[in-house]
Automatic annotation (TrEMBL):
Superkingdom of this protein's organism: Bacteria
EC number: 4.4.1.23
Cofactor(s) needed: Zn(2+)
Alphabetic keyword roster: Lyase, Metal-binding, Zinc
Domain Cobalamin-independent methionine synthase MetE C-terminal/archaeal stretches: 7-338
Species whose genome carries this gene: Novipirellula herctigrandis
Name of the protein this chain belongs to: 2-hydroxypropyl-CoM lyase
MF terms in GO: 2-hydroxypropyl-CoM lyase activity; 5-methyltetrahydropteroyltriglutamate-homocysteine S-methyltransferase activity; zinc ion binding
InterPro entries on file: Met_Synth_C/arc, UROD/MetE-like_sf
Transmembrane segments: none
Main EC class the enzyme belongs to: lyase
Database matches in SUPFAM superfamilies: UROD/MetE-like
Taxonomic path: Bacteria, Pseudomonadati, Planctomycetota, Planctomycetia, Pirellulales
Positions in coiled-coil regions: none
């Protein structure tokens, strides 16, 4: 990253257009060709918004992951997809996300869909994305994916489920490299959420075995946060418990949620960059509708520069933007880029 200091990126997800939100709740009224058309149109919209913001790195906004039937669990064989969440009403919270029962040996004979998503992004980008912009794919890691599957006799706990899913994710990231993906983010928010009570060395081993085939072949990023379902956190918001063990993950870039933590543990980025890993700092709060100004962003970038050099710093929202309204996401990203550019100019970069 030496040629791209103070790089700007996103995690993965982006808000659905309103019409796609409606359509995703009424998929039985659409045919498969209709759905493919919607997915492509929504991806174009997400890409255009990110390009307009001026980001250095973009994704497809995860616009094709309409619901569990068309997301990763829909690609898994051996599970019975839950038909409704256990709690529908009342304040939004993580217990409104249901879990799926495992009824047979887990497998994903057709992959997990991330490769097809990235190939669609490549086709869209050929027409509307500048050559200087990097295309990134994002995919949940096996420990995070395991969280919505109920253990059974064959898979008696979450770690057994994780081990079954690990080769499927590993195969998917390997195929992403084969189709030309230059940057892959493996999202493992469950690891950061539960690091305070689980074996962090075990998490490192799981993560490194997942990405082993692609290390050195593409830019590997790892995203950690404390949850963002319907704008709510679930973890303990104490990132200190992840270190120093997580520094042994074989990644090029490690993303840390910071804005929602009011930048209190900002000194942790020095540990990350001292370990030879680029620190991707969450500099925009996706859980707040306060729109950070360019000057807010510039001040936050300057604070980060007190701990780490510009050529090892990356800036992004705290988490994916899927739970933030599109109008706010657009402005937050534009101001984030503007603020980072302001500091680049000050430094003569």
């Amino acid at each position: 990253m030496k040629s791209n200091p103070l790089r700007t990126t996103v995690i993965g997800s982006y808000p659905f257009p309103g019409w796609l939100e409606f359509a995703s709740q009424n998929l039985d009224q659409f045919g498969p060709v209709d759905i493919l058309e919607m997915q492509e149109d929504a991806s174009v919209a997400a890409v255009r918004d990110q390009v307009a913001a001026g980001l250095d790195v973009i994704t497809d906004g995860e616009q094709t992951r309409l619901d569990f039937n068309l997301s990763f669990y829909g690609y898994l064989h051996g599970i019975d997809l839950e038909s409704s969440p256990p709690r529908r009403w009342g304040p939004p919270a993580h217990d409104q996300r249901g879990k799926h029962d495992i009824i047979d040996t887990l497998s994903a004979p057709n992959g997990l869909g991330a490769v097809e998503e990235f190939q669609r992004l490549q086709q869209i980008a050929a027409d509307i994305v500048p050559d200087s912009v990097t295309l990134k794919a994002s995919i949940p890691g096996p420990f995070t994916l395991s969280g919505r599957l109920n253990p059974n006799k064959q898979y008696p706990d979450r770690y057994a489920i994780t081990e079954a899913l690990l080769p499927m994710v590993r195969d998917e990231v390997t195929r992403l490299v084969e189709v030309g993906c230059k940057e892959i983010c493996v999202d493992e928010p469950s690891m950061s959420c539960y690091a305070h009570k689980e074996d962090t060395r075990r998490f490192v081993d799981i993560f490194n075995r997942t990405i082993e085939p692609i290390v050195g072949k593409t830019r590997v990023c790892m995203h950690m946060c404390f949850g963002n379902f319907k704008g709510r956190s679930v973890g303990g918001k104490r990132p200190e418990c992840m270190f120093p063990d997580f520094l042994d993950m074989k990644v090029n870039e490690m993303h840390l949620e910071m804005a929602t933590l009011n930048f209190a543990p900002l000194e942790l980025i020095k540990q990350v960059t001292d370990a030879g890993i680029d620190a991707a700092v969450g500099i925009v709060d996706v859980k707040s509708y306060y729109i950070e100004t360019p000057e807010d962003i510039a001040n936050r970038v300057r604070a980060c520069l007190k701990y780490s050099p510009a050529d090892q710093l990356v800036f992004a929202p705290d988490c994916g933007l899927s739970q933030t309204a599109r109008w706010a996401s657009r402005q937050k990203l534009a101001n984030m880029v503007h603020g980072c550019r302001r500091v680049r100019e000050e430094l003569g970069l």
